Amino acid sequence: FRPGVMKRLGLDAATLHAINPKLVYASISGYGQKGSHAKLPGYAPIVHAASGYDLANLEYQRGGDKPLMGAMFIADYLTGVHAFGAINAGLLKAARKGRGEVIDCALMDAMVGMLAYEVATAQFEITQPRPIYQPVKAKDGFLMFAPISQGNFEDMARAAGMDAWLKDERFCKPLARAGNWDALMKELEAWTAERTTEECLAIMNEHGVPCARYSTVADVMKSTYAAERGLFAKASDGGGELFATNPPFAMTGSGTRGRVPELGEHGRELVAGL
To answer: pTM of the prediction?
Structure first.
């Protein structure tokens, strides 16, 4: 609901706190509960555009002249995580001090908060280029390398048998490397292009180089990692069975419930108790 609807329904924070002062009341909206933007409709794609995220991402694309298309609702998930943390902090306050909290989470705020580097560069002139992390092509797919530290870079050079990089003035020091990142990735791709992704990973992992193969979601679901971490749990509902994601944290007793009630399954039981 947009701000104001819960008050009209008599379910706003002030009304409910009069009944239960320890209540932790959280609201998630596009632009917050107050202000000139509060009643604007705001779904994730709208906020991605309005927050600066889409155009900031465009600046990192080579030759891009139009914001990227997409169908992943980053703002929804990100704001939900912030709300989760704030709610737990509110519950701790309620337990310790006996009074609840009103939490106002906005999709817009969450997206802007994620753009820490871009907020800084919007205020100050950039004097040093930033590495733009990019895919490099192997025989059968793409790989991502992130040799962020000096040690990472040196390990990568030795793993690829490219000791010359360690003496190359374009690459040997962090500042020079950042300014010649594209050239480094081009030389790295000349090495990966002669090998499969698995061959590249085996060599780089042996040397502790941060890298990964680009995977599909189906690849991840079938992976050893997913099985070992318990990323997915089988759930069932009226429509059948499916694998659903577990919470992205491991805790005793956490995990997806095995069965989802069918539509209206408990309706009679709940209404009979009123």
So the answer is: 0.87
Pairing of strands 24-29, 101-106: parallel
Q: Is 200 strand, coil or helix?
A: helix
Query: Smallest Cα–Cα separation from 153: which of 144, 165, 137?
Result: 165
Residue of 228, 229, 233 whose CA lies nearest to 257:
233
Tokens read off for 32: 């917050």
Task: Give me the DSSP letters along 79-113.
Answer: HHHHHHHHHHHHHHHHHHHS--EEEEEEHHHHHHH
- b/e code 228-252 from CB counts within 10 Å (16+ = b): eeebbeeeeeeeeeeeeebeeeeee
Query: What are the tens digits of pLDDT across the range 217-271?
Result: 999 999 999 999 989 988 887 778 889 888 888 888 765 567 788 888 899 999 9
**Sign of torsion over alpha carbons 186, 181, 146, 134:** negative
Distance CA 54, CA 270 (A): 45
pLDDT tens digits, one per residue of 94-138: 999 999 999 999 999 999 999 999 999 999 998 888 899 999 999
Task: Report the alpha-carbon distance of residue 222 to residue 116 in Å, rounded.
Answer: 35
Which residues, 6+ apart, have CB-to-CB distance to 26 below 8 Å? 83, 86, 87, 90, 103, 105
User: 171 near 177, Cβ under 8 Å?
Assistant: yes
Cβ distance 167 to 154 under 8 Å?
A: no
Three-state DSSP at 131 gives coil
What single DSSP character describes residue 27?
E
